[in-house]
Design goal:
about 150 residues, mainly beta, Purple Acid Phosphatase, chain A, domain 2, 5-stranded mixed β-sheet
């Protein structure tokens, strides 16, 4: 099972980001979607789990939860927008991966047996930060996140 990980689109879904999400079993959007059309476009590729980010306002965004848990076989994935709002005691039992966004900085780090992933920002460029999404093959261990530069459409 390959996960497609995307965040901080801020209303912009690049063709290159869509291509990077192809052939995934599930797509996780870690918030700051910016436009419901983005989720509809991603849903054409794979089932989508999305959470609300700080720029997600309006009637459509109210339907997005603040956090989500995705269970794929024995792998539990906790999704939220800003990892700084995460409290260790709030991570549900059985979670081995935490996916977040907000910082616009791609990140893969393991702490206390949990893999923390930020796919980076797929939307408009901020400062000199890269424009990326990520893929994670759950069948290959140890898990290694593949970050994909999507700055070119």
């Amino acid at each position: 099972m390959i996960l497609g990980l995307i965040s901080d689109t801020h209303g912009l879904l690049r063709d290159s980001a869509l291509r990077a999400m192809q052939n995934t079993g599930i797509i996780i959007h870690a918030g700051d979607v910016g436009d419901p059309k983005i989720l509809k476009a991603l849903e054409k590729l794979a089932p989508v789990t999305a959470v609300r980010g700080n720029v997600d306002t309006g009637e459509w965004a109210i339907k997005l939860p603040q956090t989500a848990v995705v269970k794929l076989d024995a792998v539990g994935i906790y999704v939220l927008h800003d990892v700084k709002e995460l409290k260790l005691q709030s991570i549900p039992a059985g979670v081995s991966i935490v996916v977040s966004g907000h910082s616009h900085k791609p990140l893969q780090v393991t702490s206390d047996g949990i893999l923390y992933i930020n796919p980076g920002s797929a939307g408009p460029r901020r400062f000199n930060l890269p424009i990326t999404v990520a893929r994670l093959d759950l069948d290959r261990k140890p898990w290694e996140v593949e970050f994909i530069d999507v700055s070119q459409s």
